[in-house]
Structures are given as C-alpha cells and as structure tokens.
Amino acid sequence: MRSSGNIVKKLLCCGAKSFASDSDADAVPEGHVRVNVGKDIVCKFDLEANYLNHPLFENLLRLSEEEFGYSYEGALRIACEIDVFQYLVNLLKTSNPSAHCMELPDLISKFQSANARHLPSQ
C-alpha cells in the first residue's frame, strides 16, 4: 500500500486530483495544504500554501465561509466548481500577470469563455 501513496504524491505534483484516503492525510507535501473543492461533488487537492494569499483565493475563501461556515471537519473547503479551481491554479502556475489584477467574476467569465471556444458546434 506504500507504493500507492507514492503514486498519489506523483499525481499531485503533476496537478492531478487526489484520490487519497483519509489515512493518507499525513502525506501532504511540505509547503502544501489539503483542500476539498466543490459543493456537491468534492475532490481533494494538495495546493501550494502560498496560493492562499492570492486575492482570488481570498475571495474564494470568503465565498466558502458563506457557503460552509467554519464548523466542518477535515481539510479546508473551497466552494467553487472543480474546473474553475483547476483553471485558477493553472493560471497561477504559469505566472500569468493578468491573474494579479483579475477579480473573481472576471476569472469565472474568462473560464466560461475559454470553455465555450472548445465546445463542438451544434
């Protein structure tokens, strides 16, 4: 079972979703924090802790506090669509300068327009 923990760590380093069980809670890499993302369907991610200081994440955390409050157990919960969360993380990983002056509604709009371009025509 030890090798599956290593595979999960490698997947997380590549930006993949974490399917780690609760027994793997201690497997969070140094400098990262475990977050649960989503409202109905929840996925676990190990997020670089410094991203939590970004204004867009601060806005997401405020929304999450409104959605979930502070009384829940386990990892930090973020109330947004999983795809939007991944889009934000990828934007920050690329050091895209537009991320520093973007508001949360702008991020969501940009994400939706990017997805609309990739949908097949009907």
Oligomer: single chain
Mean pLDDT: 76
Q: How far is the N terminus from the C terminus?
A: 46 Å
Percent of sequence in beta strands:
5-15%
Q: What series of H and E elements makes up the topology? A: HEEHEHH
Structural class label: alpha+beta
Q: Describe the main β-sheet briefly.
A: 3 strands, mixed
SSE inventory with pairings:
Elements: H1 2-13, E1 32-37, E2 43-48, H2 55-68, E3 76-78, H3 82-93, H4 104-118
Parallel strand pairs: 1-3
Antiparallel strand pairs: 1-2
Pfam families: Auxin_inducible
Family: Belongs to the ARG7 family.
InterPro entries: SAUR_fam (IPR003676)
Question: How would you describe this structure to a colleague?
Answer:
- There is one protein chain.
- With 122 residues, this protein is an alpha+beta fold.
- The protein has one domain (2-118).
- The protein is built from four helices and three strands; from the N terminus they run H-E-E-H-E-H-H.
- A three-stranded mixed sheet has the order 2-1-3.
- The longest helix is centred in the last third of the chain and has 15 residues, at 104-118.
- It is globular.
- The protein starts with a helix and ends with a helix.
- 17% of the residues are buried.
